[in-house]
Design goal:
Layout lengths: L1 H21 L20 H11 L2 H4 L13 E4 L2 E4 L16 H10 L14 H4 L4 H11 L13 E2 L9 H8 L13 H13 L3 H4 L17 E3 L2 E3 L15 H10 L1 E3 L4 E3 L2 H9 L6 H12 L21 H14 L1 H4 L17 H4 L4 H9 L1 E2 L11 E2 L8 H12 L11 H5 L8
Antiparallel strand pairs: 1-2, 2-3, 4-5, 6-7, 8-9
Helix pairs in contact: 1-7, 2-6, 4-6, 8-12, 10-12, 13-17
Length: about 425
């Protein structure tokens, strides 16, 4: 009993400290004088461009629901969040908000009435957005059709359903601040940094997080699980790092969701396919080029255990290898080649494939279970896709196929087991 009371007292103390700490600095209203881009004369048109770049519609639109009316479920380890209505409806949406209320939500992470927002709304990124861009986004959102869909209550586990604890979380992991240009880099790099770090909120998915959902200090966009997929590291060339790519190849991947050149091969699937399909393909190329410049310049930060030199060559037991090879040749070889060489553009090569060789096997498991397509874009209007095998193959068979793929043709990734596949069966798509 004393132990329980002690833990309770400690939690209360932490909350009180957080509330005190954030009473002044957490609710700033000013705006740093940041030059982000040449402003459009029409703030509504500019706001529309920014809303598309931020992919706001995807998160704030339920399947089959009115645009921006909220209600889309967002599964997390803490429970399921439901996105809010951001249409100009007076009761359910932002109809009663003004531009400053909206700025406080983006920049400081709290609602019109002072309620602290959960960081599933990525205000930890949006705090970098300038006040002028925030006002333009608000101006555009005022023009979309109002929808009266009421907001749905989040379904969170204890103790995360106690919103007051966010004060302590913010004390640990959040500091508001508009992006400040780095004088050591040129204007295009700074523009890319502003977009990637802020409105595009890339690190919201690609950042490594701890058990409380806080970003790992100094880790940068080094990979993390999100929406039941693994968002690979943008700092490791062995995962999704683009440091060795040309800016034109990076731009092509962002614009079309698919690239196959002499020096770069990749396709976007899962949540990233939606980002490309619903957002990035419509972003003006100068903005994408700036993002590509910044992404290419990210520092390389490959964990020592993931380096090429540290890779261990796994030797599968002969029966497992034989079973995996037999299943692969029966179900996969027609498209991906007997030696994993691939048949592009229909099927990518698996030999040397970064997604196959990553330590995390989540994405290839989910691709075999549920299949998937790259996004349909102007540059890739009829993408080829992979069929699902969740009803055809058992967990053990999928594990055997992946074990064979991940240890053949020069690939050197750790084997998996049937339980790894089973853990992903209950959450198709995202």
């Amino acid at each position: 009993m004393k132990k329980v009371l002690g833990v309770g007292a400690l939690l209360i103390l932490v909350v009180l400290i957080g509330v005190y700490w954030f009473r002044a600095p957490d609710r700033q209203t000013g705006d740093a004088p940041v030059s982000t881009a040449a402003s459009s004369e029409d703030p509504v048109a500019r706001g529309r461009e920014l809303v598309v770049l931020g992919d706001c519609k995807s998160c704030h639109t339920a399947r089959g629901g009115a645009a921006f009316a909220g209600g889309r479920p967002i599964p997390t380890p803490f429970g399921t969040f439901y996105s809010p209505n951001i249409t100009p409806d007076a009761e359910a949406g932002l109809g009663g908000w003004n531009a400053t209320d909206f700025w406080h939500a983006l920049h400081n992470g709290y609602s019109k009435d002072g309620t602290l927002l959960y960081p599933t709304f990525p205000y930890t990124n949006y705090t970098r957005i300038s006040r002028s861009d925030s006002d333009a986004i608000y101006a555009y959102l005022r023009t979309i059709p109002a929808a009266a869909r009421a907001n749905r209550r989040h379904e969170l586990k204890f103790p995360y359903n106690h919103r007051s604890l966010l004060a302590a979380w913010r004390w640990l992991y959040f500091r508001p601040g508009v992006y400040e240009p780095d004088a050591t880099h040129d204007a295009e790099w700074n523009r890319g940094a502003y977009l990637v770090q802020g409105l595009a909120h890339c690190s919201a998915c690609h950042e490594t997080r701890n058990a409380l959902g806080g970003a790992q200090a100094q880790a940068g966009p080094s990979g993390g699980l999100v929406l039941d997929w693994y968002a690979p590291s943008l700092t490791s060339p062995l995962e999704a790092g683009l440091q060795n790519w040309s800016t034109s190849d990076i731009l092509m991947l962002l614009k079309t969701g698919w690239i196959s050149s002499a020096t770069a091969k990749a396709s976007t699937v899962g949540p990233m396919a939606e980002v490309v399909g619903e957002s990035l393909q419509y972003v003006p190329e100068p903005e994408l080029h700036a993002m590509a410049v910044y992404l290419k310049a990210l520092p390389t930060n490959t964990p020592p255990g993931d380096s090429e030199a540290a890779k261990v060559k796994y030797e599968l037991p002969p029966p497992v290898l034989a079973a995996g090879k037999d299943l692969y040749e029966k179900h996969c070889a027609d498209c991906h080649g007997r030696d994993g060489e691939g048949h592009e553009p229909q099927a990518p090569p698996l030999a040397g494939n970064r997604a196959v060789n990553m330590t995390a096997a989540v994405n290839p498991i989910r691709m075999i279970l549920f299949g998937g397509y790259s996004p349909g874009t102007a540059g890739n209007p009829r993408p080829f896709g992979m069929p699902p095998y969740s009803l055809t193959l058992s967990d053990e068979e999928i594990a055997e196929i992946l074990d064979y793929i991940r240890t053949s043709w020069g690939n050197a990734a750790a084997p998996i087991v049937g339980e790894d596949v089973s853990a992903n069966r209950g959450s198709p798509l995202w």
